[in-house]
Amino acid sequence: MSTLTRQVPLLDLVAQHAQIREEILAELIPLIDSQRFIMGPAVAELEHQIAGYTQSKYAIGCASGSDALLLAWMALELGPGDKVITTPFSFFATAGSLSILGIEPVFVDIDPVTFNLDPNQVEDVLKKTSGVWAIQPVHLYGAAADMDPLLALGAQYGAVVVEDAAQAIGAEYKGRRCGSIGAIGCFSFYPGKNLGGYGDSGIVTTNDPTLAETLVKLRQHGGRDKYMHELVGINSRIDTMQAAVLNVKMRHLDAWTRRRQENAARYVELFAAFDLPIVLPSIAPYQTRHVFNQFTLRCQRRDALKAHLQAHGVGCEIYYPLPLHLQECYADLGYQRGDLPVSELLAAEALSLPIYPELTPDDQAYVVETVAGFYRDSK
């Protein structure tokens, strides 16, 4: 194929929008004309759709994925003095939602293959740490964490399990949908997610009717009825316009997921033609549906490879360059470099490539050839 530089973005939302533009406008124009922007019918429709899709009894829309996590901890009444075990290899909101409420994150290292919380190390920490009331796995990159051991540990040590499923809409663990397995599931509809809105929004799922009722109140200043406040809550309603957009996108989500899976399989096939110092994503037997929010390599000379790809028009990103336990804002927790070596190693090696549904086979071939060219030319 041509060696001329081409542009392959990390994500192409313009291409996605072009496919569904008329469907979106058909929903938004009547909504704008109605001027019903807060808790309109589209919100109830989305909540019903997401509950069914995630195999959950209840879904409660909110303003963002970060707020979904915050609302979960508020509903569970965790606060100062309480501790939650979680991964340091995640987006900041995973831990930030805890810290906002005065909850202490207890960071535990991850599995080097799945990039998800390592249950064996969770058990080790639980044995020697008091005051842990919850375990928060993250279904990173669209692949489920190993839930059964974490649930068993939670039951043994009296710790509730809350799923950070921000990247995992539709992902499955042993045939069960992420977000329906723990006490609460938290999803993000940030535009770059597999199911993304036209701005920030999120949703919380649960099978517990008491938690669902509490979450409904907490997202509206602590009450169901106007000016009546049973709890101290926050303003975190999902905008009706976001719900309308997401309802349209739900019609396409499974098809988009299949294309992501096909693109992942094509990458594996294309990379097989080269002997490169990279490790491709692998799928554990319990990850029965990987939805590939990201396609992430482990690679040598990662930063130089990233610069090479960008210079040749290939979008790529590091998720995540510095583990949470080494962030400046958590210096007071006392973690040192070397404490969580797997997370630190992956932060130095991880690089995500384009995987979006509209990615063409030719674009993928160009991405792979560009990666191979970097290692060939730098020998």
Q: Give the integer mean of the pLDDT values.
A: 97
How many discrete structural domains?
2
Class derived from helix and strand content: alpha/beta
- The CATH superfamily of the largest domain is identified as Type I PLP-dependent aspartate aminotransferase-like (Major domain)
CATH topology-level name of the largest domain: Aspartate Aminotransferase, domain 2
Which oligomerization state do the chains in this entry correspond to?
A: single chain
Strand content: 5-15%
Question: In angstroms, what separates the terminal alpha carbons?
Answer: 23 Å
In spatial order, strands of the major sheet run 1-9-8-5-4-2-3
Order of helices and strands: HHEHEHEHEHEEEEEHHHEEHHEH
Shape: globular
CATH hierarchy, class of the largest domain: Alpha Beta
Count of DSSP H/I helices:
12
Radius of gyration: 21 Å
Question: What summary fits the major beta sheet?
Answer: 7 strands, mixed
Instruction: Tell me the CATH architecture of the largest domain.
Output: 3-Layer(aba) Sandwich
Total strands: the figure is 12
The helix content, as a percent range, equals 25-40%
> Which stretches of 5+ consecutive residues score pLDDT under 50?
none
Tell me what the structure shows:
The protein folds into 2 domains: 16-250, Type I PLP-dependent aspartate aminotransferase-like (Major domain) (Aspartate Aminotransferase, domain 2); 253-377, Alpha-Beta Complex (Aspartate Aminotransferase, domain 1), CATH 3.90.1150. The protein is 40% helix and 13% strand. It is of the alpha/beta class. It contains 12 helices and 12 strands. It has helices at 13-34, 41-53, 65-75, 93-100, 119-128, 147-157, 209-218, 240-250, 253-271, 302-311, 341-349, 361-377, and strands spanning 58-62, 83-86, 104-107, 132-136, 160-164, 172-173, 176-177, 184-188, 202-206, 278-279, 295-299, 350-353. The radius of gyration is 21 Å and the shape is globular. Helix 2 (41-53) crosses helix 8 (240-250) and helix 3 packs across helix 7 (209-218). The strands form 3 sheets. It has a 7-stranded mixed sheet, sandwiched between helices. It has a 3-stranded antiparallel sheet with strand order 10-11-12. Strands 6-7 form a two-stranded antiparallel ribbon.
